[in-house]
Amino acid sequence: MKLRLWSCLLGIMVAGTLPTIAQENSTVNFDKINIKDFSLEGVNVDTTYGAVVLADVGKSSFITNKKGEFSLVFKYQCRIKILHQKAFDIATIKIPLYKSTKSDNEETLESLKATTYNIIDGKIVGTDLEKSNVYKEVMDKNHSLRKFTMPAIKEGSVIDISYTIQSDFIFNLQPWTFQSGYPKLWSEYNLNLPQFFEYVFLKTGPRQFDIKDTKEKFQNFIIRQPSDIPAFSSETLISLSSTNTISRWVMKNVPAIKEEPFTSSLNNHISKIEFQMSGVQWPDLKHIDIMGSWTTAGLKLMQSEDFGSSFAEENKWVTDALKTMGIEGKTSLEKAKVIYSYLQKNIGSLGSRDIYLTKPLKETFNSKKGYVPDINLLLTLCLKKAGLAAFPVLVSTRAHGYAAMQYPILSQYNYVVSKLELDGKVFYLDASKNYLGFGKIPSYCYNGPAAFIDMLPATEPLHTDSLTEKKITNVTLFNDDKTKNGWVGSFMSLLGYEESSGIRERINEKSKADYEKILSDAYSGDFSIDNIKMNDLDNTDKPITMNYSLKIERSDDNNIIYFNPMLKEGIKENYFKSSDRKYPVELTAKIDESYIFTIDIPTGYVLDEVPQSTRVSLNESEGSFEYIISKNEQSVTLNTSLKLNRTIFYDDEYESLRGFFDFVVKKHAEQIVFKKKS
Question: Each residue of 632-660: pLDDT tens digit?
Fold first, then answer.
């Protein structure tokens, strides 16, 4: 399998010179609007999305504030043409701001101006946003939004938005997204970076910059002397000279990003650039390493009250809890299973959030409820206290996007599971989901490398290629000797674990009767099912075996009977309908499905036609499909299987994958034909 790095282009951003490309500028003049801004004549752009971003430009720079310290200033300008009412949601603007939990300091939104322009009686008329229509929405303890909807919006409007964010948090350098749900004619980001500050920058998406240039510029700053120099007071102001690096990135005619089936997260493929502060180098002083290594990041996490500091405490309450669970006299594996099962059944999950605790672990245990990190860090602590080798693992879920393991950027992770090492085996555990068995975690946690947190942190290989969704189905239909006008028989399917987990989750949220109704409704017309049994439904360590009786009525008045042997198990539509694809296909697991179907030839009929047997492969060894028909005087049997031996297929492999499933869909639609004896 050919490997490619789509997701991250990594580097350290410091003062220096990059290759220069001849500069170009947007045709949009943000200081003035004219009639040309209302027309897209001569512009090659996809208008089906209902709006077009004519230009958006961001500029980040550093200034010194009243305290004699550095602050970040981010200036934003955007002009959008609205073509259709289906795109009116683009006129609702959300501006995120950061706030410190250690002080009342918060980023400030300044110089906000938002105007909607319409052509009325041949003249351009602007309607300004009223300040009273800007609302604050608190997201969490560190983040809030300023939210507003543009006034006087209608089809044909042009909207202008501009604002400035001033921030004392120099680690919070604004990211930039060049691509969105609407096409952009011009997207530009500028950064004026003093030589003192170092940032890791991460570019995602396969699209390259149309313009990428840098230049150097001298700038003088008056700042307070860094306080780690004993010879100077922290109140002493000094003049610092800097050779700033001014970088400019531009993408032109950027298509809208759209949701595609079997994509882990658009966040992995959208064109954007993000920053993480890695260090500070003041003149003639020792380099300050801010980001550190995974070793230092892991140590800080395990010493943090919001993560693992309680692991180092005596925790007598855990010892008492383990006695209550009844682990004494059991083997190590039995102890682990008892602890896992107890917490899974007794601690209710409040849902998912980031990687940090919401309350002390003892409080989670006593209150019998908590979020994912609360529950799984509690699980890890209990396992450790029982003398087992357990460790927390940081995960970035599929919807959250890939994590770049090269740098310890903790904001890239949004989920915590527990890792247990026992007798040379590794078990990943998630006690926050009551539908998961021991040694199972949600499939959405399999999203590339995860971070194993210990004295020597390491990469955990949680790749989708390590999962196989295996399903075996057997259907047998006999002539109904009672009614003489139909078939009766049985359906048995050993489901895949992921499908089983989905059923368990559905039943847990609704009821068993609700799921059985869904199953019955999947059959229609002359088909009916009865005696539904789900073996191992409550045994989450095993997949479910589905059993039920089938009855199919038919009229013997028909001279010809057409019958699709795949029943509801066939693939009716190609998963990959689009003729082309911009992003990789990312499945949650490899596929291994087998289906055996046997049907009696109806009394009074003969077998007239059967589908042709066939075997095809996908790129030799990457997948296979078999459809084998056998027959005798009494019955017809179909033996079919579908396998995919990979989970990720890149864009230049898409056509062959799509063609493979085209063939599968056509074969699954073919029918057996019975003809009445003459």
Answer: 999 999 999 999 999 999 989 999 999 99
